[in-house]
Amino acid sequence: MHLPSSKSPEMSSSIEAMTSDMFAGIHEALQEYHGELVQTGSPTILCSVLPTHWRSNKSLPIAFKVVVLDDVMDGTIVTIRAGNDDNYCGELRNCTAVVKNQVAKFNDLRFVGRSGRGKSFTLSIMVGSSPHQIASYNKAIKVTVDGPREPRSKSSKYH
């Protein structure tokens, strides 16, 4: 027994057009930010690559960006949180941004709290859409008082 197809040709073409528009938007975003973005724990959220080690309360070398591949309205709030086993809620400055054209740009994101000796922060990226979306960027950045420096064994001279 054959059942009639529930899809009309008009519906199929509209779904195809919608899918093609979605993939075109994703392709455009990936081309624009090629090499700058890293995959998060969510397949629809990408973010800027952070330095592996950074100094506490110092501006990042480039603005941190979150790209949301889902259809999210402009004006949606994106919030960043940082934490690890030693410091479950690391202090951040300027950790909220507004989505515009699928991108939330954090102009002066600063990590004030330190991640601890030999430890890195995991970032939680929360998109205030409906429904809410949460992504994690594991071992994103190590934050210390003096930032990256030469190891003591290389910098000190033996007398």
From TrEMBL:
UniProt cross-references to Pfam families, sorted A to Z: Runt
Molecular functions (GO terms): ATP binding; DNA-binding transcription factor activity, RNA polymerase II-specific; RNA polymerase II cis-regulatory region sequence-specific DNA binding
Residue ranges occupied by any Runt domain in the UniProt entry: 25-153
Keyword match Nucleus: yes
Spans traversing the lipid bilayer: none
GO cellular component, one term: nucleus
SUPFAM superfamilies for the chain: p53-like transcription factors
Domain of life of the organism encoding this protein: Eukaryota
One GO term (biological process): cell fate determination
PROSITE patterns, A to Z: RUNT
Subcellular location: Nucleus
Family matches, as Gene3D superfamilies: 2.60.40.720
Keyword terms, alphabetized: Nucleus, Transcription, Transcription regulation
PANTHER family assigned to the protein according to its UniProt record, in alphabetical order: RUNT RELATED, SEGMENTATION PROTEIN RUNT
Protein name, UniProt field: Segmentation protein Runt-like
Originating organism: Diaphorina citri
